[in-house]
Design goal:
- With about 220 residues, this protein is an alpha/beta fold.
- Helix 1 packs across helix 2.
- The structure holds 6-phosphogluconic acid (6PG).
- 6-phosphogluconic acid binds next to strand 4.
Length: about 220
Amino acid sequence: MIFERFETCPDAEALAAAAAARILTLGLAAVQAHGLFRLALAGGDTPRRCYERLRASNFDWSRVEIYFGDERCLPRGDSRRNDTMAGQAWLNHIALPSGNYHPIPAELGAEAAAEAYAEVLRPGLPLDLVLLGLGEDGHTASLFPGNAALHQAQPVVPVHAAPKPPAERVSLSLGVLNAARHKLFLVSGAGKRDVLQRLATEPDLPAARIRGAEWLVDRAAWPER
Ligand code: 6PG
């Protein structure tokens, strides 16, 4: 079953608030259980408002290890990178120790970055929570339908020929995403209505292959039935 838990929110702001609350709840539980909260962030635009809301939290960020679910092969600091968005929205505004921040070195190119990040990530596995977005074609992280990266076994995979620019990316593998203790999808906007409907009948879509995930979806993406 792909929808372990499916909650609809009235609008994008309510989705951001619910996501921030869920992240903090799972973070506290992780810290209480094993002293750390290992969190992989989603890219794209949807999580931005949730990240902004997390600035105000008094969470002990020194207990948080920040990873990324995927990254675009662009120069460090490029405005289109997922870590640039997360930094501007949230991470640049909190007291996160520099040693707890683990960006994907995607500027090295897909192959070299995947190899290097696997070494960074390995001691932190399994992750406590992976945040995920949903693409209109059913992709998640940088795992795209029909792309060879979906079938690779190593923990971090190089992605070539991605249909969503840039073509060159790096992604956590399906195996690492599924091994996370919790997976939380954030889905917002009418543009995601069709793909949400497809997930139930197209199990090979990358997002449908994430098992036991929690879904936070706004009404625009999941209208009242
Ligand atoms: C990326 C993300 C990608 C994103 C989805 C949804 O690099 O773009 O990793 O998986 O989460 O495409 O993007 P939006 O939230 O912008 O709709």
